[in-house]
Amino acid sequence: xxxxxxxxxxxxxxxxxxxxxxxxxxxxxxxxxxxxxxxxxxxxxxxxxxxxxxxxxxxxxxxxxxxxxxxxxxxxxxxxxxxxxxxxxxxxxxxxxxxxxxxxxxxxxxxxxxxxxxxxxxxxxxxxxxxxxxxxxxxxxxxxxxxxxxxxxxxxxxxxxxxxxxxxxxxxxxxxxxxxxxxxxxxxxxxxxxxxxxxxxxxxxxxxxxxxxxxxxxxxxxxxxxxxxxxxxxxxxxxxxxxxxxxxxxxxxxxxxxxxxxxxxxxxxxxxxxxxxxxxxxxxxxxxxxxxxxxxxxxxxxxxxxxxxxxxxxxxxxxxxxxxxxxxxxxxxxxxxxxxxxxxxxxxxxxxxxxxxxxxxxxxxxxxxxxxxxxxxxxxxxxxxx
Amino acid sequence: xxxxxxxxxxxxxxxxxxxxxxxxxxxxxxxxxxxxxxxxxxxxxxxxxxxxxxxxxxxxxxxxxxxxxxxxxxxxxxxxxxxxxxxxxxxxxxxxxxxxxxxxxxxxxxxxxxxxxxxxxxxxxxxxxxxxxxxxxxxxxxxxxxxxxxxxxxxxxxxxxxxxxxxxxxxxxxxxxxxxxxxxxxxxxxxxxxxxxxxxxxxxxxxxxxxxxxxxxxxxxxxxxxxxxxxxxxxxxxxxxxxxxxxxxxxxxxxxxxxxxxxxxxxxxxxxxxxxxxxxxxxxxxxxxxxxxxxxxxxxxxxxxxxxxxxxxxxxxxxxxxxxxxxxxxxxxxxxxxxxxxxxxxxxxxxxxxxxxxxxxxxxxxxxxxxxxxxxxxxxxxxxxx
Amino acid sequence: xxxxxxxxxxxxxxxxxxxxxxxxxxxxxxxxxxxxxxxxxxxxxxxxxxxxxxxxxxxxxxxxxxxxxxxxxxxxxxxxxxxxxxxxxxxxxxxxxxxxxxxxxxxxxxxxxxxxxxxxxxxxxxxxxxxxxxxxxxxxxxxxxxxxxxxxxxxxxxxxxxxxxxxxxxxxxxxxxxxxxxxxxxxxxxxxxxxxxxxxxxxxxxxxxxxxxxxxxxxxxxxxxxxxxxxxxxxxxxxxxxxxxxxxxxxxxxxxxxxxxxxxxxxxxxxxxxxxxxxxxxxxxxxxxxxxxxxxxxxxxxxxxxxxxxxxxxxxxxxxxxxxxxxxxxxxxxxxxxxxxxxxxxxxxxxxxxxxxxxxxxxxxxxxxxxxxxxxxxxxxxxxxx
Amino acid sequence: xxxxxxxxxxxxxxxxxxxxxxxxxxxxxxxxxxxxxxxxxxxxxxxxxxxxxxxxxxxxxxxxxxxxxxxxxxxxxxxxxxxxxxxxxxxxxxxxxxxxxxxxxxxxxxxxxxxxxxxxxxxxxxxxxxxxxxxxxxxxxxxxxxxxxxxxxxxxxxxxxxxxxxxxxxxxxxxxxxxxxxxxxxxxxxxxxxxxxxxxxxxxxxxxxxxxxxxxxxxxxxxxxxxxxxxxxxxxxxxxxxxxxxxxxxxxxxxxxxxxxxxxxxxxxxxxxxxxxxxxxxxxxxxxxxxxxxxxxxxxxxxxxxxxxxxxxxxxxxxxxxxxxxxxxxxxxxxxxxxxxxxxxxxxxxxxxxxxxxxxxxxxxxxxxxxxxxxxxxxxxxxxxx
Lengths: 386, 386, 386, 386
What we know:
two-stranded antiparallel ribbon; alpha/beta; globular; homotetramer; TIM Barrel; 14 helices
């Protein structure tokens, strides 16, 4: 027996953090296509994020990227957010967009560069103190392009040293989320290439260090939901960077390329007791060719739909079939939930909380897109690196 | 019996075309790291290419990229090249770096954009007439990011129409080289994703349309030398864009990630009679973190070494073992050639033609790098898009 | 506007061919797990296939594999099938399970082995004459395991020669379906590794030679629906071998690993006018650990559900969004159809044609599984190679 | 400065364990091709292994597979080995070839099957006591084929319980080597799919539990040498199962598909101090189509050549270039070693120890292959499962 009411309550409680950079321009190494109405300041990014929250009701926090979202007064920024029903969320460090980082940041062979990178990480914790953010997300582009370029093991030592220093600096209620990625921008070794490496470091560091799973950062064929189940079992799943991909780190809208995978991931989250605030559900994606705000709305909805389906799995029937070794019956229980059209359920939920049942249509009717297109003229559009 | 003298003669005759853009800055979507001394004009790129040819003796032609290398007077550019012992080579079109091309170029749903892209391709043929270039290399970033975004088949029709128009415009001795690529920057469909698609179009177009193989443009596990053997058998191999990769289109130095693969490719070239001017051997790579000129020199040398090993395969012994079905013996014949250290042979060849046996060391001794670092100050460094 | 009635009519007309070998034992190189009740003769396989057709109403033909399904009297076999409401379908040749084929069949370096393989292929056409089958499906495990083992190009010549001979032997209404596969059991080169190779051969042979797409036979990341669209555009799509996979050629139930991919494939089939008898929709899968008959039923249903969703795509809305370059709207039209729960529609369709709306439940209630478990004792269970 | 004498000493000390099953028949799911002269008993396998050691001088131990190599009297088997200059090596458990293991062994949902599997593992430790083997190698084919089939987390709990029991049973000088594998024969989840999972379990278990790296068990693009470096840094690298692959777990001869990768792996072994008896260098491969004994000899030689090149890397020059951030120079130092033809060095080493410089030729001259072809007639050839 599944419990529709319980599912609705869980969906009501789930929140999805949106990233400030998703509202800005992005692209590939070949071209960044500019779009009209793109924000020019962290404040305007919050304005756009507020639209997403206003339509979906489940996106109350916004992740910041430092230095892209650096401001003089973080308290003012937090206040600006609060006035729009938002909170500032995860602080994302950036130690990959300075010429000094050509050969790495905290793993760089030169101590001076490592120090510069570390100082940036520590500054991010200062910012967390100011914004009240709980999580520091660490992604390092560190790695090498050519065999022999640098010493793999020495780089691990340097990494461990930097992580240790940052860990010591964390406040009592602050956490460090360590992200892994198979490749790009490094093309031979990456210093944190897989969940095992991130896990090993986090284990050494302690309970405030947790692994974050970006759904686009794995080798082809990797079973992501397995990793999710394992990390939850180990108490080391700190959160997600959701996005979708057909090939590499394509950063498409969450659920766009493989909605069944997103469902399987959310099923393991539910199964492993991960549908709690201890696991951060974040988006991290690039809307290179599509309109940005409705793309974020759509992504949030995709996460919700996958979660809804996961919540509708008939756990008793599933367990019974699994225990009986009935392969087809067990698979059928899962597929029954997946094949269910949960859009009516979510529409109902929105209406019950005073929202339009169709967030995308509501956004388009709101006039916001036209307004920003007209008003945001001049200045420098935000983008990767901006 | 292998013939060392014949191998040397073949190596003497082989040339490798270097791309003008390899001398400029490049990077990933995350960051372009600037390097000192990078050229600021097509003329300065030719100066650097001349260094590569001066050290290796086998890189007499330079590929241009339009509009990156657009000049007012191509005859003057050709003359400048000739004065440095160079010729202008393949013309590479670029229909991916304009905001109009957000949804494609010749496959775009809007006829006006398609026309703009086609006009650019035709302009490239005009430039070929001016430079005396034989080959027009066509790579299209066209594709879609999301299922449903556009009609796959209609895009093929548009592609065919554009290719047909360009084909008709080609002069008698001019060729069109059609390049394929699995993905990036498009992340769902790419309009020319594999050799089969390129082959089908070239077959329809006629003998002046040929397929070009970029060694970084395949799905994981693809056997590239098989494709080379097939295209040679079909008379449809127009040339190579050499580079190397561990993951996706990493664009590392040719031979850097998998020297054995480069050897196997060159073996199929030799086996299939492809070591002729009809097959263009070009580099297409990005030196994101390493010095550019010595990286190009090294890449040229890697192609030479792979070719030398391929030429040293004992064809009679190989055929005998293959006919006998002796798997281990046949494999051993190939591996004997691969395991041979051919650097002495190539050093000898260089000395016989008045070159330094160690091109990289000679380059470093030449003072060129210091000179350009000092002199090329101010102005706008060349880079992708510049 | 989509037309529910038209969708139902199309679904009514669609048939899925089931393979005789799916009813027998299968496994991996590590182990074949025996299951109770597995057929011991081609006749018993037809009995099981009749169960699938009786429950689904859309599986009236059965593919045979020679020599696994060799009988003395094919007319008698055809009559036996007809008495159960079935017809004999595609004839699958097998030139990979004889010690002589260690180094290949029609591509073998030894002419005598090639002749033996060719004779088998010609025998298959004889059998087609006897069974009234339209299609000869050719899959060759030919290839090499080690670089140098054999000559890639010579093997293509041998392949072309054999295909030419078989093509000449085909009757006026008979076709040859050439299947490609990236790897396994050959681990270095495979002689027909991709659609391009199959296409090139079929093009040379003529209109009766068509390419067959096995959904498990591609490199990671390959966009299969793109290939489908292309082959339909070229008039060269002969049919499908449906199955599903997470990794390599896993041969799971169709739609099990990536139902969204199966939907996208069926959408391109519908879009390209491929929902006709000219395209053969076949299953080719292995039920290694699950019960075989219900697994086949489930697979047929999965193909139906994907087709139903594809038929429900609102073509006018899609075209309008595509022409407008509205990425999100176009994607949303496709996703609307995919997210629809089509099980009620198919249940309705079944009831209208006198079938149980739930084929799997009906099968389990029928008592067939218990009956064969009890009756099929002794003798040699059918399996791969049996 | 590299030290040729030191390299030779290290090569003299290195040993490679050969697997008893490499001498028997093997194949793919499609076909096992029988070869003449294949052993019929564990004793005959030792006879063949003795040939490999006699020709190479570095293969003194033989890994056993239980139950394939089950005998009544292991002391007698060990004595037989000793008389041929061999020792019995690693004991490999097999809990994947019994019908009971259709849904897993130690992770099976049924307690009775788990107990049976566990008993087999404990029996293997008994055998280790009898043979004096140090290492128990555990590879589990456990996993699932379909989403929902079983509970991922519960299976981890069962796995941990079984491993704990076996760990407790180990003698003081005995070790447990836990192997991971991405997929096959399980096609959805595998219960130990990657190094991270194996590492997490070994860490919990204690110092006698170590990870073993099979070079064919990774997702495409995985950087194996990085894993090697990490595991050495963590003190958790127990050994290798060497083989080579282009696609999946192809089990080709070590070094056959990517000799550069094997070199990079051996470089990290040398760099990380892993060239000691604490790291077991084992082969685990299948000679499906080539002669088995010379294939094993060739594989041993390939490991030696890769090791030799790794030992010849000029460590001082490499470190200097790495510290200086000179990407090209550092890469060149590594490539210089790789491009060296080390066959003369190894031939010299063999001659100094009284061996023929060309082990394969010496084997073929020895008459052993003809002898076993003539003598081993009748009986049941050993093979996977035999």
